[in-house]
Amino acid sequence: MSGDGTGYPLESIRAIVQKLPHFEALGLKALELNRGNCLFRVEYSPELVGNLESGVVHGGVITTLLDSAGGTAAFSVVPDGASVATLDLRIDYLKQAEPGRAILGYAECYRQTRHIVFVRGHACHDTADDPIAHFVASFMVGSVGFSPSDRA
Amino acid sequence: MTERDTSLFDRVMALKAAGDFAAISALIPYSSFVGFELLSEDDQLITILRCRPSNIGNTTIPAVHGGVVGALLEHAGVMHIIHDCEITRFPKIINISVDYLRPCLGTQDTYARAYLVKQGRSVSNVRVEAWQSDPLRPVAAAHAHFLMR
Protein backbone atom coordinates (compact mmCIF):
# COMPACT_ATOMS: atom_id res chain seq x y z
CA MET A 1 0.00 0.00 0.00
CA SER A 2 1.29 3.47 -0.68
CA GLY A 3 0.76 5.39 2.58
CA ASP A 4 3.93 7.29 1.84
CA GLY A 5 2.29 10.64 1.24
CA THR A 6 2.22 10.35 -2.54
CA GLY A 7 -1.39 9.17 -2.69
CA TYR A 8 -4.55 11.26 -2.74
CA PRO A 9 -5.37 12.98 0.55
CA LEU A 10 -7.99 10.75 2.21
CA GLU A 11 -10.27 13.66 3.02
CA SER A 12 -10.41 14.76 -0.60
CA ILE A 13 -11.24 11.20 -1.73
CA ARG A 14 -14.06 11.09 0.81
CA ALA A 15 -15.41 14.53 -0.11
CA ILE A 16 -15.35 13.83 -3.84
CA VAL A 17 -16.78 10.31 -3.94
CA GLN A 18 -19.66 11.18 -1.61
CA LYS A 19 -20.71 13.92 -4.05
CA LEU A 20 -20.85 11.60 -7.07
CA PRO A 21 -24.46 11.58 -8.34
CA HIS A 22 -25.25 7.93 -7.69
CA PHE A 23 -23.52 7.93 -4.30
CA GLU A 24 -25.82 10.81 -3.38
CA ALA A 25 -28.92 9.15 -4.89
CA LEU A 26 -28.30 6.02 -2.84
CA GLY A 27 -27.21 8.01 0.22
CA LEU A 28 -23.85 6.20 0.45
CA LYS A 29 -21.75 7.42 3.40
CA ALA A 30 -18.06 6.72 3.89
CA LEU A 31 -17.88 5.88 7.61
CA GLU A 32 -14.18 5.06 7.63
CA LEU A 33 -11.46 5.65 5.09
CA ASN A 34 -7.86 4.56 5.56
CA ARG A 35 -5.01 3.82 3.19
CA GLY A 36 -6.02 0.49 1.70
CA ASN A 37 -9.48 0.03 3.18
CA CYS A 38 -12.81 1.71 3.75
CA LEU A 39 -16.26 1.19 5.19
CA PHE A 40 -19.45 2.52 3.60
CA ARG A 41 -23.05 2.48 4.76
CA VAL A 42 -26.32 2.54 2.87
CA GLU A 43 -29.56 3.21 4.76
CA TYR A 44 -32.61 1.08 4.10
CA SER A 45 -35.24 2.71 1.95
CA PRO A 46 -38.47 1.27 0.49
CA GLU A 47 -37.48 2.52 -2.98
CA LEU A 48 -34.45 0.20 -2.96
CA VAL A 49 -36.52 -2.96 -2.51
CA GLY A 50 -35.94 -5.66 -5.12
CA ASN A 51 -38.11 -8.41 -3.68
CA LEU A 52 -41.60 -7.25 -2.78
CA GLU A 53 -42.31 -10.63 -1.26
CA SER A 54 -39.68 -10.20 1.43
CA GLY A 55 -38.96 -6.45 1.41
CA VAL A 56 -35.27 -7.19 0.85
CA VAL A 57 -33.24 -4.61 -1.08
CA HIS A 58 -32.31 -5.34 -4.71
CA GLY A 59 -28.97 -7.11 -5.19
CA GLY A 60 -27.91 -4.07 -7.20
CA VAL A 61 -27.82 -2.04 -3.99
CA ILE A 62 -25.24 -4.45 -2.53
CA THR A 63 -23.30 -4.44 -5.81
CA THR A 64 -23.24 -0.65 -5.81
CA LEU A 65 -22.30 -0.44 -2.12
CA LEU A 66 -19.39 -2.86 -2.57
CA ASP A 67 -18.21 -1.50 -5.92
CA SER A 68 -18.19 1.95 -4.32
CA ALA A 69 -16.24 0.75 -1.28
CA GLY A 70 -13.83 -1.19 -3.52
CA GLY A 71 -13.22 1.74 -5.86
CA THR A 72 -12.70 4.11 -2.95
CA ALA A 73 -10.27 1.69 -1.27
CA ALA A 74 -8.41 1.43 -4.59
CA PHE A 75 -8.22 5.24 -4.84
CA SER A 76 -6.63 5.33 -1.41
CA VAL A 77 -3.59 3.35 -2.59
CA VAL A 78 -2.91 4.66 -6.10
CA PRO A 79 -0.54 7.57 -6.81
CA ASP A 80 -1.97 11.08 -6.92
CA GLY A 81 -3.27 11.72 -10.45
CA ALA A 82 -4.09 8.10 -11.27
CA SER A 83 -7.59 7.00 -12.20
CA VAL A 84 -9.31 3.81 -11.15
CA ALA A 85 -11.89 1.74 -13.06
CA THR A 86 -13.57 -1.53 -12.11
CA LEU A 87 -12.26 -4.37 -14.25
CA ASP A 88 -14.43 -7.08 -12.74
CA LEU A 89 -16.21 -8.01 -9.57
CA ARG A 90 -17.87 -11.03 -8.05
CA ILE A 91 -20.44 -11.11 -5.30
CA ASP A 92 -21.60 -14.14 -3.33
CA TYR A 93 -24.86 -13.68 -1.50
CA LEU A 94 -24.42 -15.52 1.79
CA LYS A 95 -27.65 -14.60 3.52
CA GLN A 96 -30.55 -12.28 2.93
CA ALA A 97 -30.28 -8.70 4.10
CA GLU A 98 -32.95 -7.82 6.66
CA PRO A 99 -35.62 -5.36 5.57
CA GLY A 100 -35.49 -2.05 7.40
CA ARG A 101 -31.81 -2.22 8.34
CA ALA A 102 -28.80 -0.27 7.10
CA ILE A 103 -26.07 -2.27 5.33
CA LEU A 104 -22.33 -1.80 5.79
CA GLY A 105 -19.90 -2.42 2.95
CA TYR A 106 -16.22 -3.00 3.68
CA ALA A 107 -13.42 -3.27 1.12
CA GLU A 108 -9.66 -3.70 1.46
CA CYS A 109 -6.84 -3.81 -1.05
CA TYR A 110 -4.84 -6.99 -0.55
CA ARG A 111 -2.50 -6.64 -3.51
CA GLN A 112 -1.47 -3.72 -5.64
CA THR A 113 0.60 -3.65 -8.80
CA ARG A 114 1.37 -0.77 -11.15
CA HIS A 115 -1.68 -1.54 -13.25
CA ILE A 116 -4.11 -3.45 -11.06
CA VAL A 117 -5.48 -3.13 -7.52
CA PHE A 118 -6.94 -6.34 -6.06
CA VAL A 119 -9.71 -5.83 -3.55
CA ARG A 120 -11.86 -8.02 -1.32
CA GLY A 121 -14.60 -7.21 1.10
CA HIS A 122 -18.02 -7.98 2.46
CA ALA A 123 -21.41 -6.54 3.27
CA CYS A 124 -23.03 -7.00 6.68
CA HIS A 125 -25.51 -5.45 9.10
CA ASP A 126 -23.32 -5.57 12.19
CA THR A 127 -20.07 -7.49 12.07
CA ALA A 128 -17.86 -9.20 9.52
CA ASP A 129 -18.46 -12.63 11.07
CA ASP A 130 -22.11 -12.50 10.04
CA PRO A 131 -21.86 -11.36 6.42
CA ILE A 132 -24.67 -10.77 3.92
CA ALA A 133 -22.31 -10.92 0.95
CA HIS A 134 -18.71 -11.61 0.09
CA PHE A 135 -16.99 -9.50 -2.54
CA VAL A 136 -13.84 -9.70 -4.63
CA ALA A 137 -12.88 -7.30 -7.41
CA SER A 138 -10.01 -5.94 -9.44
CA PHE A 139 -9.54 -2.34 -10.47
CA MET A 140 -7.49 -1.00 -13.34
CA VAL A 141 -5.14 1.86 -12.56
CA GLY A 142 -4.89 4.38 -15.39
CA SER A 143 -3.86 7.84 -16.34
CA VAL A 144 -7.16 8.87 -17.89
CA GLY A 145 -10.69 8.66 -16.56
CA PHE A 146 -12.06 9.52 -13.19
CA SER A 147 -9.84 10.53 -10.30
CA PRO A 148 -10.46 12.36 -7.02
CA SER A 149 -8.42 15.31 -8.26
CA ASP A 150 -11.07 16.13 -10.86
CA ARG A 151 -12.79 19.01 -9.15
CA ALA A 152 -15.52 19.75 -11.65
CA MET B 1 -44.89 -17.52 2.69
CA THR B 2 -47.76 -15.39 3.93
CA GLU B 3 -51.12 -14.88 2.19
CA ARG B 4 -49.96 -11.58 0.76
CA ASP B 5 -46.74 -13.04 -0.66
CA THR B 6 -48.62 -15.83 -2.38
CA SER B 7 -50.93 -13.37 -4.02
CA LEU B 8 -47.93 -11.36 -5.24
CA PHE B 9 -46.45 -14.44 -6.88
CA ASP B 10 -49.84 -15.24 -8.41
CA ARG B 11 -50.04 -11.69 -9.70
CA VAL B 12 -46.64 -12.07 -11.35
CA MET B 13 -47.70 -15.39 -12.89
CA ALA B 14 -50.87 -13.77 -14.25
CA LEU B 15 -48.79 -10.96 -15.78
CA LYS B 16 -46.43 -13.55 -17.25
CA ALA B 17 -49.38 -15.40 -18.83
CA ALA B 18 -50.48 -12.07 -20.32
CA GLY B 19 -46.95 -11.46 -21.60
CA ASP B 20 -46.72 -8.20 -19.67
CA PHE B 21 -43.12 -8.37 -18.43
CA ALA B 22 -42.84 -4.61 -18.21
CA ALA B 23 -45.55 -4.72 -15.54
CA ILE B 24 -43.67 -7.44 -13.63
CA SER B 25 -40.52 -5.35 -13.60
CA ALA B 26 -42.52 -2.28 -12.57
CA LEU B 27 -43.67 -4.12 -9.42
CA ILE B 28 -40.10 -3.83 -8.15
CA PRO B 29 -39.42 -0.48 -6.46
CA TYR B 30 -35.68 -0.51 -7.33
CA SER B 31 -36.65 -0.70 -11.04
CA SER B 32 -38.05 2.80 -11.00
CA PHE B 33 -35.29 4.03 -8.66
CA VAL B 34 -32.65 3.46 -11.35
CA GLY B 35 -34.89 3.38 -14.44
CA PHE B 36 -35.25 -0.21 -15.64
CA GLU B 37 -37.73 -0.86 -18.44
CA LEU B 38 -38.56 -4.04 -20.31
CA LEU B 39 -39.03 -4.68 -23.99
CA SER B 40 -40.31 -7.90 -25.54
CA GLU B 41 -38.85 -8.41 -29.00
CA ASP B 42 -39.44 -11.61 -31.02
CA ASP B 43 -40.23 -13.40 -27.75
CA GLN B 44 -36.90 -12.19 -26.34
CA LEU B 45 -36.67 -9.90 -23.37
CA ILE B 46 -34.48 -6.82 -23.43
CA THR B 47 -33.95 -4.99 -20.16
CA ILE B 48 -33.23 -1.28 -20.57
CA LEU B 49 -31.47 1.01 -18.13
CA ARG B 50 -32.62 4.51 -18.95
CA CYS B 51 -29.97 7.20 -18.99
CA ARG B 52 -30.38 9.30 -15.85
CA PRO B 53 -28.03 11.85 -14.29
CA SER B 54 -28.58 10.22 -10.88
CA ASN B 55 -27.02 6.93 -12.13
CA ILE B 56 -23.64 8.54 -12.81
CA GLY B 57 -20.78 7.15 -10.74
CA ASN B 58 -17.96 8.77 -12.65
CA THR B 59 -18.35 12.41 -13.56
CA THR B 60 -15.27 12.64 -15.80
CA ILE B 61 -16.38 10.36 -18.66
CA PRO B 62 -19.28 10.58 -17.49
CA ALA B 63 -20.10 6.92 -16.87
CA VAL B 64 -22.89 4.97 -15.19
CA HIS B 65 -21.91 3.65 -11.73
CA GLY B 66 -20.48 0.13 -12.05
CA GLY B 67 -22.89 -1.04 -9.36
CA VAL B 68 -25.88 0.11 -11.42
CA VAL B 69 -24.49 -1.70 -14.47
CA GLY B 70 -24.19 -4.80 -12.26
CA ALA B 71 -27.77 -4.24 -11.09
CA LEU B 72 -28.96 -4.09 -14.72
CA LEU B 73 -27.24 -7.41 -15.51
CA GLU B 74 -28.73 -9.06 -12.41
CA HIS B 75 -32.18 -7.68 -13.16
CA ALA B 76 -32.01 -8.86 -16.79
CA GLY B 77 -31.04 -12.31 -15.48
CA VAL B 78 -33.99 -12.52 -13.06
CA MET B 79 -36.49 -11.28 -15.62
CA HIS B 80 -35.15 -13.74 -18.18
CA ILE B 81 -35.65 -16.65 -15.80
CA ILE B 82 -39.21 -15.51 -15.03
CA HIS B 83 -39.78 -15.26 -18.80
CA ASP B 84 -38.20 -18.57 -19.86
CA CYS B 85 -38.62 -20.97 -16.96
CA GLU B 86 -41.47 -22.68 -15.19
CA ILE B 87 -40.99 -21.16 -11.77
CA THR B 88 -42.66 -22.00 -8.49
CA ARG B 89 -41.16 -19.03 -6.63
CA PHE B 90 -39.10 -15.95 -7.34
CA PRO B 91 -35.53 -16.80 -8.40
CA LYS B 92 -33.01 -15.76 -5.74
CA ILE B 93 -29.52 -14.68 -6.66
CA ILE B 94 -26.69 -16.89 -5.36
CA ASN B 95 -23.76 -15.11 -6.97
CA ILE B 96 -22.81 -12.89 -9.87
CA SER B 97 -19.55 -12.12 -11.69
CA VAL B 98 -19.40 -8.94 -13.73
CA ASP B 99 -16.76 -8.02 -16.30
CA TYR B 100 -16.57 -4.35 -17.20
CA LEU B 101 -15.56 -4.22 -20.86
CA ARG B 102 -16.01 -0.62 -21.98
CA PRO B 103 -17.10 2.65 -20.39
CA CYS B 104 -20.87 2.64 -19.92
CA LEU B 105 -21.68 6.19 -20.97
CA GLY B 106 -23.96 8.10 -18.66
CA THR B 107 -25.45 9.97 -21.60
CA GLN B 108 -26.99 6.91 -23.29
CA ASP B 109 -29.51 4.17 -22.51
CA THR B 110 -28.05 0.72 -21.82
CA TYR B 111 -29.60 -2.58 -22.98
CA ALA B 112 -29.16 -6.06 -21.58
CA ARG B 113 -30.07 -9.52 -22.81
CA ALA B 114 -29.72 -12.75 -20.86
CA TYR B 115 -29.21 -16.33 -21.99
CA LEU B 116 -30.10 -19.37 -19.97
CA VAL B 117 -27.00 -21.56 -20.03
CA LYS B 118 -28.42 -24.27 -17.79
CA GLN B 119 -31.67 -24.73 -15.97
CA GLY B 120 -31.28 -27.18 -13.15
CA ARG B 121 -33.93 -28.31 -10.72
CA SER B 122 -32.58 -26.08 -7.99
CA VAL B 123 -30.07 -23.76 -9.67
CA SER B 124 -30.03 -21.90 -12.98
CA ASN B 125 -26.98 -20.44 -14.70
CA VAL B 126 -27.45 -17.35 -16.86
CA ARG B 127 -25.16 -15.18 -18.95
CA VAL B 128 -25.99 -11.57 -19.58
CA GLU B 129 -24.53 -8.93 -21.87
CA ALA B 130 -25.09 -5.20 -21.81
CA TRP B 131 -24.48 -2.74 -24.62
CA GLN B 132 -25.26 0.82 -25.61
CA SER B 133 -25.10 1.81 -29.31
CA ASP B 134 -23.88 -1.53 -30.71
CA PRO B 135 -24.78 -5.02 -29.40
CA LEU B 136 -21.46 -6.26 -30.84
CA ARG B 137 -19.57 -3.87 -28.57
CA PRO B 138 -20.76 -4.88 -25.10
CA VAL B 139 -20.02 -2.53 -22.20
CA ALA B 140 -20.35 -5.30 -19.60
CA ALA B 141 -21.02 -9.03 -19.29
CA ALA B 142 -21.99 -11.23 -16.38
CA HIS B 143 -22.65 -14.78 -15.39
CA ALA B 144 -24.82 -15.55 -12.41
CA HIS B 145 -26.47 -18.39 -10.51
CA PHE B 146 -30.02 -18.23 -9.24
CA LEU B 147 -31.72 -20.48 -6.73
CA MET B 148 -34.98 -21.75 -8.17
CA ARG B 149 -36.63 -23.29 -5.12
Quick description:
Chain A has 3 helices and 8 strands. Chain A is an alpha+beta fold. Chain A has one domain: Roll (Thiol Ester Dehydrase, Chain A), CATH 3.10.129.10.
Cα-to-Cα separation, first versus last residue of chain A: 28 Å
Strand composition percent of chain A: 35-45%
Overall geometric form of chain A: globular
CATH homolog superfamily of chain A: Hotdog Thioesterase
The amount of beta strand of chain B, in percent, is 35-45%
Q: Which CATH class of chain B is shown?
A: Alpha Beta
Listing every helix as H and every strand as E from the N terminus to the C terminus, the arrangement of chain A reads HHEEEEHEEEE
User: Main sheet of chain A: which strands, in order across?
Assistant: 1-2-6-7-8-5
Annotated CATH topology of chain A = Thiol Ester Dehydrase, Chain A
Give the N-terminus to C-terminus distance of chain B in angstroms. Answer: 13 Å
Question: Would you give the CATH topology of chain B?
Answer: Thiol Ester Dehydrase, Chain A
Rg of chain B, rounded, reads 15 Å
Principal-axes geometry of chain B comes out as globular
| Number of H/I helices of chain B | 4
Indicate how many domains the architecture of chain B comprises.
1
Structure description:
The complex is a heterodimer of chains A (152) and B (149). Chain A has one domain (10-142): Thiol Ester Dehydrase, Chain A (Roll). Helices cover 21% and strands 39% of the residues of chain A. Chain A has helices at 10-18, 21-26, 59-75, and strands at 29-34, 37-42, 49-51, 56-57, 83-93, 103-112, 116-124, 131-142. The longest helix of chain A is centred in the middle third of the chain and has 17 residues, at 59-75. Chain A is globular and about 45 Å long. Chain B is α+β, with helices and mostly antiparallel strands. Chain B has one domain (3-147): Thiol Ester Dehydrase, Chain A, CATH 3.10.129. Chain B has 4 helices and 8 strands, in the order αααββββαββββ. The radius of gyration of chain B is 15 Å and the shape is globular. The chains are: A alpha+beta (152), B alpha+beta (149). The A-B interface holds A 20-25, 46-54, 57-61, 63-68, 71, 83, 85-93, 145-147, 150, 152 and B 1, 5, 8-9, 27-30, 32-34, 53-61, 63-68, 70-72, 74-75, 90, 92-100, 103.
